[in-house]
Each structure stands twice: as C-alpha cells, then as structure tokens.
Specification:
By secondary structure, the protein is of the alpha/beta class. Helix content is 54%, strand content 12%. Helix 5 links the parallel strand 3 and strand 4.
C-alpha cells in the first residue's frame, strides 16, 4: 500500500502536469489568435504586395515554430513518444523534395505524429492538410488554417473537385520558392467500430477486399491530387499510424489530446510505419492509379494486423538525432514574441478606432 506521503506526492505531480497543460493550452489559444490570425493579416497587407513569396515563407516559418513547440512540449513534458519504423530514414536522402502524404485516420493525435515526422526533416512549417470545411468555422484555428493554404472539403465531389484543383495549382505555383508536404487522409473521417462495419459491408457490395483495421479509402481526391502534382513531387510518404488497443478500441483510442497534454500517468506511445514510395513507381493511368491506392490500404491493413498481433510494426526502426534540451524553449519564446507583437498591434488598432470614434 502506498504511504500517505507517496499519494500526496503523486497528487501534487498530477496537479502540476494538469496546471502546466492548461497553461500551455491557453498559450496555444492566445498565440494562435495573434501569430496565426493578426500577424498573417498584417503580413497580407504590408508584405505580400511587395514580396508575395516572402509573405508565404514567413507564414511557413510561423507554422513551423508553432507546431514544433506543440510536439516538443508533448514529448519533453508529457511523455508522448512517437516510434517510427520503415524505409523513410534511408530513402529521404535520395528523395528530399515535395511530398504527398497518405495517412490513415484514427484520432486527433494523428496530427502530432505527422508533426513529429515532419520535424525530423525541418518540414513542419511546410505541411498542408486536406481538411473538412467545418474546420474553417472553428474560431481562431479555422482562420489560421485558411492562411496556411489548407484544402477545405465539403465531401461533395462536384464542388470539391474544382476546389482541390484550384488549391493544388496555387500550391504548385508557390512551390518554386517553398517546398510542401501535402497530407491527405483518404478514409475521409476517423475510424470507429460502427464506421468500420459499414465500410466492410460497402467493400463486399463492391467486390473489394474488406479491411480489418481501416476504412475503404475514397480514391478520387488522392488520385486527382497525384495527377496534378506528379511533376512537382518526388515521392509519396505512406504513413500507417497505430495505437495500443489495450488502452482503447477504435473510436476511443488513447492517448487522446487530453491524455497527451494533461495526463502523464504513463509514457504514451504511438507507432507509425513510414514508407517512402518514389513517384516513378506510381501508375500513370487513372484506373491503375485507383487500384494502386486501394492496394496501398490493403498493405497498410496487413501492417496493422501484424502490429496488433506483435505490438510492433514488422520493419526496422528509424533513428533520429536527439535535439538539444533547450530547443523547445527557443521555439516557444520566438512564437511568444511574435504573438506579443501581434497582440500589441491589435490593441493599438482598437485603441485608435475607439479614440477616432469619440472625436
């Protein structure tokens, strides 16, 4: 039986982690309002008219500093650990350019895993995401995503087709000055047991191979993206993310974002198999490309089957350099200074408007 003193120490420790997490969440909210909303508007007004590419690179830098701060805090303070396996480390030297990322979607924590992988190659700020249109209506974060060229989808192919083409051509147009890693979740939604059952029934009705751990991918968007970007990307990064089912099944996987930032009961591990596929290995015609995308998910499903049987992916681990302990603080300080400037400008602007209105 733990002593009373030991229980008090554990309670104090958990309370401290909770307080730190809530403080960090407040910092994210305030800093994103300023550095993710106000500062981009200032850059849009005063920098883009004279140097459009500098405006875009500046926004990339802001995103990189912000997202690196988030993943570094989760790792250093909250015991969030991403275990990467696959051929990524050995092939990145040969294929360092623009990428299309195909990823399964299990939880909101998937984004932290993608941040982690991108951070190891200095590409966090170059990430772009396909996202549901509803995100743009989320206060503060929706506007920040808009400035970062997220591709917002309505899940109506007639409307989405033209939007995807327009956004991808914008990304291609700016890719001469800035690289990109474009993230697509082909399943279109997070998996849960109810959706998985419906997906398996759909697969059987269409004579497709049912999947045990994934939803049948929606291939139209990824296929169109590959066709548009095939001259701009050098490879596709296939990410397969897995969570330990001992802590929760599909729809209730752990760690959640609350676990990752507010609870440090254990070391939260998330596994990701990262395989790089050269663009030269991708089929060119539409029908073959659609079949290829489905087969990618069949292979991902087989990897997940092995993972849930063995507890690890059947691939060699990717070893990355350990960052200096002070680096997270540098990112947080830099982003805080930029956010402080944005807030100061916002307050000054409001004060000027009020003073003008009074006169």
């Amino acid at each position: 039986m733990p002593s009373i003193l030991h229980r008090l120490v554990l309670c104090a420790h958990d309370s401290l982690i909770l307080l730190l997490g809530l403080t960090f969440a407040l910092w994210i909210w305030l800093s994103t309002f300023s550095a993710g909303n106000i500062v981009p508007i200032l850059s849009l007004l005063f920098l883009k008219p004279f140097a459009p590419w500098m405006h875009e690179v500046f926004l990339d830098c802001l995103a990189g500093v912000s997202w690196n701060s988030i993943i570094e805090y989760a790792e250093r303070v909250c015991k969030f650990k991403t275990i990467v396996t696959g051929n990524l480390a050995e092939l990145m030297v040969r294929y360092p350019g623009n990428k299309l990322i195909l990823c399964n979607h299990v939880s909101a924590v998937d984004v932290l895993v993608i941040f982690f992988v991108a951070s190891k190659y200095g590409k966090t700020g170059n990430l772009r995401f396909f996202a549901k249109k509803e995100l743009i209506f989320v206060p503060i974060f929706g506007l920040a995503a808009y400035f970062l060229n997220f591709v917002f989808l309505e899940r109506n192919w007639i409307k989405d087709m033209s939007r995807i083409r327009q956004k991808l051509l914008e990304i291609v147009g700016s890719s001469r000055k800035r690289s990109f890693w474009l993230v697509i979740f082909p399943e279109g939604t997070r998996i849960d047991n109810s959706k998985l059952k419906k997906s398996q029934e759909f697969a059987i009705s269409r004579n497709l191979q049912p999947l045990k751990h994934l939803l049948i991918p929606r291939v139209k968007g990824p296929s169109m993206s590959i066709q548009i970007l095939k001259e701009e990307i050098d490879s596709i990064l296939d990410l397969t993310i897995a969570y330990d089912k001992r802590y929760g099944d599909y729809g209730n996987t752990r760690p959640s974002l609350v676990d990752a930032f507010l609870k440090r009961k254990i070391e939260w591990k998330v596994h990701v198999n990262a395989d790089l596929i050269p663009v030269s290995d991708i089929p060119q015609d539409q029908e073959s490309l659609d079949d290829w995308l489905h087969q990618i998910f069949v292979q991902k499903d087989q990897k997940l089957e092995r993972f849930h049987a063995d507890g690890v992916f059947p691939a060699r681990p990717c070893n990355f350099d350990v960052l200096p302990g002070y680096q997270p603080f540098i990112h947080i300080i830099v982003y805080t200074l930029v956010a402080a400037f944005g807030l100061w400008t916002f307050v000054q602007g409001i004060s000027s408007i009020v003073a003008y209105a009074r006169h």
